[in-house]
Specification:
The radius of gyration is 29 Å and the shape is globular. By secondary structure, it is of the alpha+beta class. Among the domains are: 84 residues, no CATH class; 148 residues, no CATH class. The chain contains 27 helices and 32 strands. Strands 13-14-15-16-17 form a five-stranded antiparallel sheet, with no helix packed on it. Strands 23-21-20-29 form a four-stranded antiparallel sheet.
Length: 927
Amino acid sequence: MKRTWMLAPMGASVVLVLAGCSGETGSLQAQAVSSCMLCHNGALEENYSGPGIENPHPFAGAASLQCTQCHGGDPNGTDLASSHVPPPPEIGDEAFQATNAKAYFNRLTLTGMDKFPNYTVGGRSYTALDYLRFVNPGDLRVTKAGQGCGACHVDHSECVNNSLLATETGIYSGAFYTTGQANAVPANQGRDVDTAGDTSFRAVQSSSFVPGVAPVGAVVELIEAQVWAAFGVHLPGHVFQNPEFHAAALDDDVNPDGSVITGSPLAKLFQEQVQFTCGDCHLGSAGQNNRAGDFRSSGCSACHMPYSLGGKSGSTDPNVNKNEPLNPDAIDEPERPHPRSHQIRGVARTLAGGVQVQGIDDATCAGCHQGSNRTVMQYWGIRLDQNADLVRHEQYPANPVSFETTHADTRLFDPAVGNNTFNGRNANQYILEEDYDGDGRDDTPPDVHYEAGLGCVDCHGSYDLHGGDVNSGDRPILSHMEQRVAFRCESCHGTVDAYAPTRTGTGWDGSTRTLAIDGHDHVLDHVYKDASGNYWLRSKLTGAVHYLPQTRDTVANNGKTHPTTGQPIYSAKASYSMGRVDGDASNGLGPVQTGGNDAGFAHGDGMECVACHGSWTNTCMGCHLGGEYDTGNNFSNTTGERIVYKQRTADFTYQSPLFFTLGVGPRGKVTQFSANTKVFYRWKDENDALSRVFTFSDRNAAGSNSVAGFGSLSHNAFMAHSIRGKVSPTKEGPRYCATCHLTDAGLVQFGPQYDAFRAAMASRNYAALDFDLLKQHFGRNTGNAMNSPMWPHMAAGLGTGLFLFDENGCPVNPLDTGTRRRGCYSDPLNFVFVQPSAIFDLARVVYDLDRIVEANGVANGSNNHAWLDPLVGPALRDGATDLGLAGPLGARLIRQLTDPATGIVLDSWIDSDGALRGDAATNIAGP
């Protein structure tokens, strides 16, 4: 079909019949404008004045870039073939991709595009990067070569290329560390208690790494993840038709301490599993790019030119297919997904001439940053229920009184798009609201910052996302997230002792302002203090301005009011919870107790804000990963080549928002901890034989070390994106006092039960546990509304007794009547399930997954995060044998939280309803 533009330059009516634009034979008319502009926009000048494609880069100084400056191609071409960069023969055209699965996979995901050899078409030579640049000038392999975005934004390109978002080393290397494999880079071995990264999507090297001076987590290089399962590769150590990888042979691949033998078939199979299951969640490629919630590009474009939910183009380019993909839940070859528009997003603002630039929204982040309900979904107040346990009425240990799925939530399931899944999951697997204790409040509310209208980019700006300071050369290759993320709660809100720190700098609008600074001493150009001392945040998402109350004004009754509403900032309960017990009213009241106080104490001295303000976390217990030998169309997420490894399972046994654990994070403060892929791994070989189920100990022999007793596998500090300030009639609040502390009233009511529970857990006498009592005290007790002393036992990391597992990853408890409980099979080859309660036998217990520490401070599990400052933190882990790492609480804190005789028993506290209990009413006056 021919496309016709009706244009009227300089008052004359000109009709251009652009036969070549649609791929038909014929030539473009001679013109001064590039063939790109003429065909895709219809303008007769390089100014996007036509009715077609949008100007992607309307920014001052570069508002009329030629298309070929970014995309390459020939602006003087006379038709489509002579203007466009032809694809490599391995990719071919759409007809070829419709019948060649490898070609389509690599065109869709861009994974192995840089691996193809040079080629010649029509007497002209091309590289694979020429074509990759043509389809996405923001791909990091292109920008690293100084092309596309990298031609102008050199510093950004170099910074992002080495960033955690590009390398994904936190996932790769973290997983390989947890299995005990030696660091694959000799120069990185032993660094930071042997937790340093080693593996990446593509190899990266640091030009500034200096041993002895480099910061924690920095490495000299990361190597590309190696593919062992390539189809047709008959080489020693490779999977294809190799008996070394038969199921029975894997039993010899584990050391006595539970770690996998480096370089063994089992180690290589697990590497393949990580690459297959997790190895596409980075900026290096476009990911799977095949279903609603996953449609995106690669590199810079992944964030700055987001795709639509259903993959259909929102561009005004007349040459883009507006009808593909037909099914947003399952793209079909040779279809391709498309951006919402052909316009770069960044920070919301209005340019000269009234051009609006949109901010990068949360939906752009959601495709990657969700997983087992991490980050974006939690921020929105949505919990992942992978097994649809709530809908099946099989939630463990108890079903909620009420719940609501996301069937009507258009953020995930838009009737206009017609998608029935998001990230491959349906609305029964995403829970919008749930109420376990029947108080009418949502136990999984959204973050207050989301409710206020803030987006991810309002906290995580250039430094966090680009991988450092693009202007200063601060670009070390780092191993873990906390080593890079610089934004802190205190950056905006300050502490009880001081207002948020500031210094003079250039604001978002180019003016000189008093700006807030992040945890790495970089200015936040959108967070500022005005002449009256009020703090404000200008949203990068919307451009709206938000007032930022200061913690010091919240705890001190100094008369400070909200500058626009007139409401007082002071809160008596906040003053009690966060203030300092020193008699100084400017620091707040502090948690005063009638029976005595720790002079000068304030929670913020040794605790991160999220420890209390993170209202809920989706605890995942039991991660069942499995692979199988398969000669079908499976392709590597690293190289794009055909492989014989296929994911067989990637399931969670239990997910619940109720459980809660504290630990000492890598910044040396008490924070929330969460289960970290407590993996049970199994392999099905080419003969359909199943291996046994493997669990692993890490490089430091922690996690599944049978010599050390009942392992708890892996756990890590977790930044819950579920911040709440106070309870409301419809939403639960923060973690109030009784969540972590014993109270005198709780011991009066439940003292004998707690003594019996505590003794049984300490001696691992699981037969003495009253599981029905545990179901009551944990299963329907949101925020410890019952004031149960068992909750502090859980919070301290000593466990609940509810997550006992056998060697196969099947739960051991009499409560669970689930009919599809992952890990419990009478026939694992054919996935024939058996109810855990039907085979309950305490003699089968091998793992106690939420018992991450003993009362003496010795950890039972694995942690892969080193201290950011080794002089801060170890004191909070007294008794630990792994003092070089972040991890569970130390013996002193455990005793203070859990021991009725020698610990801290509150006589004054705030309960989960926000009500004053004990003697608190005599100490607190006001809301």
